[in-house]
Amino acid sequence: MCSQFQSETDTEIFAHLIQNALDKATVNSECDFIAVVQEALLPIEGNYALGILNVQYPDQLLFIRQGSPLIIGLGDDACFAASDIPAILSYTRRMLVLEDGDIAQLTRKGVLVYNSNGDEVQRPISTISWDPIRAEKGGYPHFMLKEIHEQPRAISDTLAGRLSSEQGRVYFETAFVPDDIILNIDRVLIIACGTSFHAGLTSCYDYERILGIPTSAEFASEFRYRNPILNDKTLVIAISQSGETADTLAAVDLAKQKGATVLSVCNMIESTIVRASDYVIYTHAGPEISVASTKAFVTQLVSLQLILLYIGKNRGILRKKELQTLTQDLLHLPTVASNLLSSEQQIQHIARRYAYAQNMLYLGRDIHYPLAMEGALKLKEISYIHAEAYPAGEMKHGPIALIDKDVPVFFIIHASSVREKVIANMEEIKARDGKIIALTLPQDEEVKRVADHVIEVPSISPHVDSILLSIPLQLFAYYVAVHRGTDVDQPRNLAKSVTVE
Ligand code: AGP
Q: How far is CA 255 from the centre of its chain?
């Protein structure tokens, strides 16, 4: 007999299904209870992660996952369950990641894990090296500001032990894509969402320019809904801070079905995307709590540079001298990034001036265009100001109609072969009374003449400058949001991990 129930909440369906199954079954033991729960959930399609407590068995908690993340923390005298590591990092660093279909039984005695067949299984226990203090605010008013300031260290951690500047070599602690695949690939396809997509798009310019391999970046949320053409000569790089983004995960699965090799760039150890990929490079950003991604973004850019160097060396594209120079450039980053953070007050001042704008444009050309996209995303997600990014050369094809004295325009005009053309674009804005903030090289008198405000960012080399340029964009968005009084770390309508489509 099939019972009927009414509910306006989808999660209540689980409780009803389990109760129905319990009513019909003979449950004599805890094991029977686990089997009934597994059986009851069989008809469910889609992703879920559940915690189940039954009044008849008050001494145990069951946790079961399908598609959605669920980790179990193992403390000295307690166990924990959460959807991500930072949530329980202050209690324990020993974590166990459940596989799809696993059910974990937490009791006073500890944790037992059963697979979808009901067999008891051992899942590997990882010890997370992150310091729990790093998941707290540490005196900063917001996690976002703390995480912006942590970037020099996050970059150092991502480079640590991976570079030899004398040899011009890159080493990874995890198994990397083998040479026969690296030599065989004829295309790199980067898939990701949001900020991670912007990191991918930024890197495309260097992959094509330095490696000469056709490279493109695609929103994972679009990629999965068309019929992409890829094969065993395609290297797919999936980028995700959380490792749990549903669209990126689905895109990884699709790429693998089509025969591509999938390398993930991820911040979360043993996350679902990592486990679905063939290979992984971890970004060592540490826990990123603020919804707005900052240090994860820069460590993604650093990791993509490391992959570039590795491929360049192993395909024989980059010679030792070039590798040494590129390696040295990366190693300079933490110090220059630290110095850059000292321009914070000036950025705060400019941000206050434009905090009540209703619309903003972010413009750049070449590799600075994806950075403009990232700057606009940061601003809109935490300040709720409508911000659009455009390639500066596209202005005259429509968006220039928006310009007047009330629309501030943020230009990224740095070391690039198109600098002159961007100055011409700035003049076009100026002629229409637009206000200009320019992120530019120190002592660029021509830019200073046209712009209303200038934020100076030194250049190490064009292939790593994007990492430096990100920092003022983040600070600007942060201080605008603070002036507007929004909830910076937890902006409305957003979640840190987007585990649904
Ligand atoms: C950016 O600030 C956002 N938090 C968001 O765009 C994020 O980058 C996106 O949801 C992808 O997340 P992931 O890197 O964890 O896959």
A: 19
